[in-house]
Write a structure and sequence with these properties.
- α1 (6-13) packs across α2.
- The protein contains 3 helices and 3 strands; from the N terminus they run βααββα.
- It has 61 residues and is an alpha+beta fold.
- The chain has one domain (3-52).
């Protein structure tokens, strides 16, 4: 289990860190909270979350 911080997680997700802060506050994304200000993300769980929330786009005819 590799734990990563906000900056790396936001980079992997392709979102701003502020968006990630919001997602954590509304519990939209899996995370580990060690203290009030110390939040980390399991890299494997993050990859799984990305796969589950993938939107498939079908080509237009």
């Amino acid at each position: 289990m590799a734990l990563i911080g906000y900056k790396e997680a936001a980079h992997r997700l392709g979102v701003d860190v502020s968006t990630l802060y919001n997602w954590v506050s509304i519990k939209k994304i899996p995370h580990r909270r060690f203290t009030r200000r110390c939040v980390r993300f399991d890299a494997d769980e993050l990859e799984a979350w990305i796969r589950v929330h993938r939107v498939t786009v079908e080509p237009t005819p």
